[in-house]
Design goal:
The complex is a heterodimer of chains A (about 400) and B (about 450). Chain A is of the alpha/beta class and about 400 residues long. Chain A is built from 14 helices and eight strands. Chain A has a domain of about 150 residues: 3-Layer(aba) Sandwich (Rossmann fold). The N and C termini of chain B lie far apart (about 45 Å). Classes of the chains: A alpha/beta (about 400), B alpha/beta (about 450). At the A-B interface, helix 5, strand 4, helix 6 and helix 13 of A face helix 7, strand 4, helix 8, helix 14 and helix 15 of B. The structure holds iron/sulfur cluster (2 copies).
């Protein structure tokens, strides 16, 4: 069984390291030159790209795998890493296999990057996708459905064929299946984190950036089944933690490994949050654009880029901690990430109020030294274990 | 010749001072007078609507920049960081939080009243949203959120306008009605909007006088005073009409007399030697020192993006009393940082040409990704389109740790030398655009 598990993880690992998007080129060739559309974190309605017969490709920066030479000439030292590595990927031709690029509404950096893209790559289709911060279906919902309708028209043109309602419904069904599979993976981590270590789960989730949705769903399910059967993976006395703040620029894989090696089981995190967005199924009957919009309006996860009109800003995090039976929270945010870092004091206050311990550090996607984080995480895990036993 | 002009200049300055003092006094006595207080933001402010409800606005960014100018921001920021706010984030937010924790004493030394409503009408920046989420925890009052979509593909579509108008009707106006106990008087709103457009005409006239040689104004350092009443509590009032009419007359006088801008040290000693367009907000903690680096060298700013941060009027937009809600939506959407980069590049290039500037200088502030992300591309593109050299400096808004005077001065001087070189040899390639490692390291 573990041979199967190893093979799945190896495949995911190869995709994670496929910085040249070879898999996308192969997919295009195998599909008669069909088009591919890239998108940045966090949320884009991948269903619409998929429904047009194009491959949605999630681009989450250079993840420390490329040397930044040209990208640094475009961004000041006090701006996070992901835009510079994304520009580097494009300027080195690694994104040439993408015919279009979507920039979701998340922060001012990504927003401005969309304009840079239009100047630097005028031959490519580029769109900034604003999402509503008003969650009244008659107001924000109507606006979003209108925006999604425009996106559908654009992507239809890019694909060379109009996207029908049935195309969209079929795609929504595929993504619903994918989200369910991901929930199974997340449930497994909360249930038996020793069976599905965070770094493996991360690789499996990451693979969804590159694989066609059904293939990814199959990979997640295979992994979950194989991990559940991996009885040789014994539980250890580790602190159960939630890791938060990594929804956009990604932590180095080594950082995730470091946390677990330092004694933390990461039982929930917000990496690849876009893959779990919206929460639950999108309706497959009625107007599919309205269904996508409704799901966004009513079932978006709480995250720094989303306005929370009611209640305490930290409450959703407290609920996540409780649901995943975590014992503490590790705030791991990219340096200079305004949304994540402005959110933190509010979240930390909420944790303090209910006595949930936390620790915080910053990272960059190209971080190479983990000793300090290892010590910090180790101390945190020890304190949780001691405190828990006291 | 300069005496009468100076006297007139003093009149508008004095008038502005009086207006501001009156506003802060009204705020400090709001409780006694029973007037409601609304905290809101400069870009995308709904001042005319607030006037229609007779509420008093407070602008946290203005308090922050005033704290910066009064050298108090450093301590406020330190306080916020001590409370757990990251050193990486916008210093306006931290300055405001620090001020709040220190008794919320406003720029005139009077205590600011707590808000009756947090009116989160913001545009062009995500940090505003987080800022009010933070403030929301400090006050027990309703919050009205107005989300203005970004002009990502360079236009404000009918669907976007409709979205903003719906929010005005379903979210903002009901909350203003709730706190004031009054129904919206649409006629009153329209009157305010009509007054806005009169003053807006005069502001545009003033800014456009910088096309003269010499320019009668400095459109960045001086400009921040000119935009003050328009971008804050006074747009839509009779006093704003009077202020801008007076300012217009003063500037026209200066043009007639062939005079340059008035600096804190009086008329520029060596006259106008360089004409610049500046992109990005100013540094407030060393504002006078920063300005002096320019006028000592004879550098006059003839146009700046910062003077459009609370509204871009020179492309023709005016508040339109006949479409009260749509015009508010259009106003919010059109503020400078809500424009996409290609549009910003277009505007800056146009200003370089229309104002016959020697080039574009970017002041990149650490705090503000809304402005800063993409500025190096803006610089390169404007250079390319205008054929005039660009310069680049880095400071911060209100964090004194990020103003390295020697470094900034040095770079301004090198930039002006570059312009000089270009003048003597127009075909010389004086800049190759941004290069890796070319940026100064922050102190
Ligand atoms: S890491 Fe944070 S600041 Fe950087 S682009 Fe992503 S959300 Fe924006
Ligand atoms: S990031 Fe920029 S626009 Fe936003 S609040 Fe700070 S200074 Fe203002």
């Amino acid at each position: 069984m573990s041979a199967g598990l190893d093979a799945i993880v190896e495949r995911a690992d190869a995709l994670y390291h496929d910085i040249d998007l070879t898999c996308v080129k192969q997919w295009r060739e195998a599909h008669g030159g069909a088009r591919a559309v890239g998108y940045m974190p966090i949320y884009v309605p991948r269903e619409i790209i998929d429904a047009a017969g194009m491959l949605p490709v999630g681009i989450m920066g250079g993840r420390g795998q490329i040397e930044i030479i040209r990208g640094d000439a475009w961004f000041q030292s006090y701006i996070c890493q992901i835009p510079r590595s994304t520009i580097e990927l494009a300027l080195t031709g690694r994104l040439d296999c993408l015919d279009g690029f979507l920039f979701p509404s998340i922060c001012d950096v990504i927003r401005n990057l969309s304009g840079m893209w239009r100047v630097l790559f005028p031959q490519k289709y580029t769109r900034y996708l604003d999402v509503p911060q008003n969650f009244d279906p008659a107001v924000g919902g109507r606006f979003f459905a209108h925006e999604l309708g425009g996106l559908r028209d654009d992507l239809g043109k890019l694909a060379g064929r109009a996207i029908s309602d049935d195309d969209l419904r079929a795609s929504i069904a595929r993504y619903n299946e994918n989200r369910r599979a991901i929930e199974e993976l997340i449930a497994l981590r909360a249930e038996a984190p020793h069976r599905a270590p965070a770094w493996e789960a991360y690789l499996i989730l990451y693979a969804g950036n590159l694989l066609p949705v059904e293939e990814h769903t199959a990979m997640v399910r295979d992994y979950v089944a194989a991990a559940k059967a991996a009885t040789d993976r014994a539980p250890r006395d580790q602190a159960r933690v939630v890791m938060l703040g990594s929804f956009c620029e990604q932590p180095p894989l080594m950082l995730v490994k470091t946390l677990e090696r330092a004694g933390c089981y990461v039982v929930w995190d917000d990496t690849a949050l876009g893959r779990r967005w919206p929460q639950g199924d999108v309706a497959t009957d009625g107007d599919p654009i309205v269904a996508l919009s409704d799901a966004f309006i009513s079932r978006s996860p709480a995250t720094a880029a989303k306005y929370q009109p009611e209640g305490d800003r930290g409450e959703p995090l407290v609920q996540i901690v409780k649901r995943s039976r975590a014992e503490g929270v590790v705030f791991g945010a990219p340096s200079f990430c305004d949304p994540a870092l402005l959110d933190q004091p509010m979240l930390q206050d909420a944790l303090d109020k209910v006595g949930i311990p936390w620790t915080a550090f910053k990272y960059a996607e190209n971080l190479g030294q983990f000793q300090v984080i290892r010590e910090q995480a180790g101390t945190f895990a020890d304190s949780i274990r001691l405190w828990g036993e006291a | 010749m300069s005496q009468p002009a100076k006297a007139q200049k003093d009149r508008s300055m004095a008038q502005q001072k009086e207006m501001i003092a009156g506003h802060f006094h009204a705020l400090s006595t709001a409780k006694e007078s029973g007037r409601k207080v609304v905290y809101t933001f400069v870009p995308g402010n709904l001042t005319e609507l607030m006037h229609a409800f007779d509420v008093l606005p407070v602008y946290p960014e203005i308090n922050a920049l005033q704290s910066g100018m009064r050298k108090r921001s450093g301590a406020f920021i330190a306080e916020a960081e001590r409370l757990g706010h990251s050193e990486d984030v916008c210093t306006y937010v931290k300055c405001d939080i620090g001020m709040l924790k220190n008794g919320n004493i406003g720029p005139t030394g009077e205590k600011l009243p707590p808000p009756d409503l947090l009116l989160l009408s913001y545009t062009g920046c995500f940090t505003f949203m987080k800022w009010f989420e933070l403030l929301k925890r400090e006050y027990d009052c309703p919050v009205a959120m107005l989300h203005v979509p970004y002009q990502g593909d360079g236009r404000f579509s009918p669907g976007m306008r409709d979205y903003v108008v719906s929010q005005l009707r379903s979210e903002v106006i009901p909350k203003l009605e709730q706190i004031t106990g009054k129904k919206l008087d649409e006629a009153k709103l329209q009157e305010a909007l009509a007054r806005s457009s009169i003053a807006e005409d005069d502001l545009v006239h003033v800014l456009e006088q910088a096309k003269h040689r010499p320019s009668p104004i400095d459109s960045y350092f001086g400009g921040v005073y000119y935009i003050g009443p328009m971008f804050t509590a006074f747009r839509g009032t009779q006093s704003a009409i009077e202020y801008y009419r007076m300012l217009r007359e003063e500037i026209d006088e200066r043009v007639k007399a062939g005079e340059g801008p008035v600096t804190p040290e009086g008329p520029m000693k060596n006259g106008e030697k360089y004409r610049l367009v500046v992109e990005g907000p100013p540094n407030w903690t060393s504002f006078q020192e920063f300005w002096k680096m320019f006028y000592d060298e004879g550098a006059v700013v003839v146009a700046s993006s910062y003077t459009r941060v609370g509204g871009v009027y020179d492309t023709g937009f005016r508040h339109d009393a006949n479409r009260p809600f749509e015009t508010l939506a259009d106003y919010c959407a059109g503020c400078y940082t809500n424009l996409d980069l290609p549009t910003r590049i277009g505007l800056l290039s146009k200003w370089v040409k229309d104002y016959d500037a020697d080039g574009l200088l970017v002041n990149s502030v650490k705090s503000c990704n809304s402005f800063s992300a993409g500025q190096l591309l803006i610089l390169r593109e404007v250079e390319k389109r205008t054929g005039r050299p660009g310069g680049f400096i880095e400071t911060d808004l209100v964090d004194p740790r990020y103003f390295s005077a020697a470094n900034v001065k040095n770079r301004i001087e090198s930039y002006l030398q570059m312009i000089e070189q270009k003048r003597h040899n127009p075909s010389a390639i004086v800049s190759e655009g941004p290069k890796a490692g070319a940026l100064p390291v922050m102190p």
